[in-house]
Amino acid sequence: MKNDESTLIGPKTIEEWDQLWMPVAVGLKTLPSGLRSVVGLYRCSLGGQISAIGTGTDRRKGMEKRFYDLIRPGDSGRNYYSGRQIHKYRDRLDVEVLETGPNIEHWREIAKQLRTPMIQRHRPVWNVRNAPYMRKG
In angstroms, how far is CA 55 from the centroid of its own chain? Predict the structure, then answer.
């Protein structure tokens, strides 16, 4: 990343946040547990390549809601390219989460603020496919 590595988002720099990704043991084969009370980002990798980064910031169900939207049979929660790709390859993905904090507005906003810098930093192929402005730098 460029000069923004030292920019604070909430209490940490992007570099510090980037050290906090934790693996989700079950991936997206089933709904991961324990994510209802937290918000943050998720990162999916296929074959060792980071494929997608997104946020889980639902007010009532935190990150759990986003994971449910990504794996359930209907497609109304993923009518965008990376969501469709995640659903298609859900049984083969390695998944990580970066919890920004408990499910309150302050931490939901921090998760939303982190999304673009993390996409710019890692260039996940399914996110940038339709976003050429993120390929700069």
Answer: 4
Q: What is the pLDDT of residues 49-60, one digit of tens each?
A: 999 999 999 999
Question: Smallest Cα–Cα separation from 122: which of 17, 8, 28, 40?
Answer: 17
What is the reported pTM?
0.87
10: buried, middle or exposed (CB in 10 Å: 19+, 13-18, 0-12)? middle
**pLDDT at residue 34 in the model:** 86
Q: Which residue has the tokens 């982190």?
A: 114
List the helix and strand counts (H, then E) for the chain: 5, 6
Q: What angle do CA 120, 122, 125 make, to 5 degrees?
A: 95
Distance between CA atoms of residues 90 and 100, nearest Å: 23
| DSSP class per residue in 54-90 | EEE-BTTTHHHHHHHHHHSSS-TT--SHHHHHHHHTT
Contact yes or no for 64/32 (Cβ under 8 A): yes
Position with higher pLDDT, 136 vs 71:
71
